[in-house]
Amino acid sequence: MAITYNFRRGAEIDGIDPQTAGEELARITEHHGNLTAVVVVNEARPDDAPLHPVFEWDDAVAAELHRQLQADTLIKAVQVVRTMDEPDEPVFVKVRSARNYQPVEQVAQRLDLYEEAFRDACKRLGEAQAALEQLVAVAARLNPQMKPRAAKAAQIVGRVRDGLPTGRL
Q: What is the three-class DSSP state of 96?
């Protein structure tokens, strides 16, 4: 039975259709016995490789894009240390409509920016819940004794999500 592949909702992958990508990743996994980013990049290097169009092969451009990813990681990692009674908190939050990071204290004081950041956080929570539910479904089908842990996690995330306010604050 042939497998049909698709990209997850919200994924933006240019240069390849999901069926080709899925088939090539399955082939690489079978050939190498595992799947890592290093293996995928190495398999994609030849100009005629199915995954080649997905990657930036101009080293100067790729290096700059990599540095931008490192900057994103840095910005998201830095936190303000509070007292022992208060948790550490982020310094910056991404505001998608502004296409930049802004000080979290400023975002928290502006209702429009706060609502946008809140919606983005809720969306990520929903994505986490969907990933857990998919894991539960696969476990139920292939390995039922693995199902309870992921099912409990999906329920917890779902309860948290259900308890969040909806609409405008």
A: helix
Report how many domains make up the chain.
2
Model pTM greater than 0.85?
Answer: no
Residue pair 101/75 in contact by the 8 Å Cβ criterion? yes
- Token pair belonging to 13: 């992958």
Do 11 and 26 lie in one domain? The reply is yes
Lowest mean pLDDT among 23-27, 104-108, 139-143: 139-143
115 Cβ neighbours under 8 A, 6+ residues apart: 168, 169
34 and 63 both lie in a single domain: no
Q: Strand locations in 48-140, DSSP E?
A: 79-80, 89-90, 92-95, 100-103
- Structural domain span for residue 7: 1-55
